[in-house]
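Predict the 3D structure for this chain.
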Amino acid sequence: MNDLTDARAMGRSSGTRQQQVVDRLREWALNGTLSPDEKLSEAGLAEALGVSRTPVRHALAVLVEEGVLRRAGGRGYLVRSYDRADVVAAVELGSVLEGYAARRLAEAGLPDDVAAELDDCLRQGDALFRPGQPVEEAAYGAMNRRFHALVTDAAIRVAGVGLIAPLRATLARVPFGGPDAIRFAPSAPLARADHLRHAHWQHHYIVAALRSGEGARVESLFREHGEMVKVSLGLARGALDLGQGPPLPILR
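Done. Predicted structure below.
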């Protein structure tokens, strides 16, 4: 492993120790701290993290299921790599799926309880961008996951499009295919705070379109929202494509 100097400080993320271990190992896999060529062991990772084997064993199972790691031999693991084309496809298909869900929800009518929860997400996000304070990416990520889940879950409940759930789960198995894909490649052209601020403004536009029943517009907004993920990963084409090589260690 490379630099693991702050391994024992499990970060500021909320939740159980098990979830913190999952989050940390996922982060290491995606940022290159864990080399795709290095065989990982439960014991070695537990020592590096300063925890027992139990949460590491749980985390390894979760990350294999997510597709971030793959089994290598009896007890070893390797960071799984993906073709850029597969990741781009997962991001684009995810935005198509969410756009479809949002359109169906707008056409069916946004329930008051969902509108209230979406407004709460907007307030939480707005608070993260107060002048003079750094943006807490973990807090933004939690809000973002909630925002996207509210829209798709409401579409399933209100519009009766239950097929969304298994399709969403399939796409989430590819790294960056789900709404928790807040990762930044070295070649990303926007500063992190600027990127997140822009994405959050898109949340405001999405909620406004849902409220007004503008199905076609909210579908288009979700497609554009997905483009922001490609920008952050250095996978966008055209003017935002800086052409600086592999955007993340797990992409080939």
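The chain has a mean pLDDT of 82.
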